[in-house]
Request: fold
Amino acid sequence: MEQAKSHKWLRLPKNNLIPRAREDRAILMQCIGIALIFWIGVRMSQTYVATKKIELHFLLPPDQAFHKAPPRNMSIQTKGQGWDMLYDFLLGAKIHLTYDLTKRSSIRLDEKRLLNDIRERTNAEDLTFSNLTHTDIRISLEPKMQKWVPIRPIPDLSYLSGYYLSGNLKIDPDTVKISGPVSKIAPTYEWPTTKLTLVDLKDDYEGYLALKTPAPEINLNLQRVKVNVPVEQVTEKTLFVKIHVKNADREYRLFPSQVRLTCNVGLSHFNSLNSADFRAEVDLSDAAIQAGNTVPVMVNLQPTIVSNVRFVPKVVEYYAIKKEIN
Reply:
């Protein structure tokens, strides 16, 4: 009996607060929802300003090209109520304008025409537009031309002491096809690369070199080329080169008759390099001869595998040879 009374003493009273808390939470969520709806309605009824992107597309005949490439992208400021702005954005984040030039050689897109075309392609009638980035686009076409031209590398190389370029810088491929308007393509006879800057070279270099970015109306069939820079250790070599006479109206004798030439050459070309690879000359024309009987020496021919060419003497004496009469 005492045990039964004990259990009765420990029995907890029924908690009536839990259902009430659930009811209060539901009412609170309903109030928050109603407030959110009113807030969104107030916010979306306000006026907003945003920037909208515009893409321009042009249809051209296959044998025609832009004289000057028009802009392909621009932007405009849109202004309107939040609902209109949201509706327009959801139906199209960008505006696409397409113009057909297959049956005409020129077209002018002024601000008035562009704004009319933009309004026709928007999905909200109550929007207003301003601050168009391009307000007068003039487009003209001319015959299209294409041709292959050699690629000219632009090296900016430096070497460790005792090393130098052991041969010609090589690029692969060495030509590029350029296409565009005749006025731009016809006078173009080569296409440069970007500058190749390498420092402290002591080994061969292989890599890729980008071509110079063309104007928008010119197209290239490739954007980069493979480049090889052969580098090797160099040494000094000394040769004796005969001096040749040019523009002489009679026979002359030179003193000395040869120069002592020193140059730097790669080890792989040391044995093959000889004096016949150089040409030293003096000019004995009336215009070149100064007072006295001395004339400067010039080295007008040297191979590309050598560097730092120097020679002595820089000036030689010349004497006319008198022929004996029998």
